């Protein structure tokens, strides 16, 4: 099966002193699969997510292939229009911008970039309401400014709602489970599982096994010192939960 995301010998340096964070990482994720990346703090997990989505301030060398095209020089909005989506570990607040307005502008900007017609207002409202219902997102939350006054769990639900609305080809979930209680975790996981499909891939970045109890990955990769140092099936996540990362950190 051809890979949807192909990362080849990726190196990423950050800051004025160009500190190397990712040091020759290789990873392939086929369409239809969910891959998890686990690793201790400082291993480069969030840096990987930012490098893939084109964040400024990251010096990136190596190949980032997505759907057969090299996207490593593309702007973030170009990558988004191609269907790459990042769910942030710490979602930002956008005062003064109603959530519905934000979602409508984001969806239609992507449709326009792909040469598609904008979605009409009635169709958009139906599209959003159906998806909001899956995540217990109320009409009041949709009217409020983006993430302003939301709890941690509500912010994460809004991140997954954005993904359900935008229907990206590939999702990168950067520690979506951080700060969630067990009920919020279940709701978020249900939303993520609703996005699983044969023509969509996902990369789930997490410290802990508990998220993977609800989003079962096809493959688990261990990241340490800027590289993938081990890969396996879902049982690898359970081993990490029981034994920790020490042996992988020492090996790296």
From TrEMBL:
- What family is this protein classified in? Belongs to the ABC transporter superfamily. Ycf16 family.
Q: Where is the ABC transporter domain positioned along the sequence?
A: 5-250
Q: Would you tell me the protein name for this molecule? A: Fe-S cluster assembly ATPase SufC
- Is Chaperone given among the entry's keywords? no
Record key words, sorted: ATP-binding, Nucleotide-binding
* Organism field: Hyphobacterium marinum
């Amino acid at each position: 099966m051809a890979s949807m995301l192909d990362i080849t010998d990726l190196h990423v340096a950050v800051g004025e002193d160009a500190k190397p964070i990712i040091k020759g990482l290789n990873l392939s994720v086929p369409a239809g699969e969910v891959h998890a990346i686990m690793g201790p703090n400082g291993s480069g997990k969030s840096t990987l997510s930012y490098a893939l989505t084109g964040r400024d301030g990251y010096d990136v060398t190596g190949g980032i292939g997505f759907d057969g095209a090299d996207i490593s020089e593309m702007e973030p909005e170009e990558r988004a229009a191609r269907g790459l989506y990042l769910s942030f570990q710490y979602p930002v607040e956008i005062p003064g911008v109603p959530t519905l307005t934000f979602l409508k502008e984001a969806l239609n900007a992507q449709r326009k970039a792909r040469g598609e017609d904008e979605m009409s207002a009635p169709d958009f409202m139906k599209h959003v309401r159906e998806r909001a219902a899956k995540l217990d997102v109320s009409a009041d939350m949709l009217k409020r400014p983006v993430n302003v006054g939301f709890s941690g769990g509500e912010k994460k639900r809004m991140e997954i709602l954005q993904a359900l609305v935008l229907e990206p080809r590939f999702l990168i979930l950067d520690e979506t489970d951080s700060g969630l209680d067990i009920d919020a975790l279940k709701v978020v996981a249900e939303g993520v599982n609703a996005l699983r499909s044969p023509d969509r891939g996902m990369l789930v970045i997490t410290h802990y096994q508990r998220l993977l109890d609800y989003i079962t990955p096809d493959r688990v990769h261990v990241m340490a010192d800027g590289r993938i140092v081990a890969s396996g099936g879902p049982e690898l996540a359970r081993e990490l939960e029981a034994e920790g990362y020490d042996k992988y950190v020492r090996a790296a």
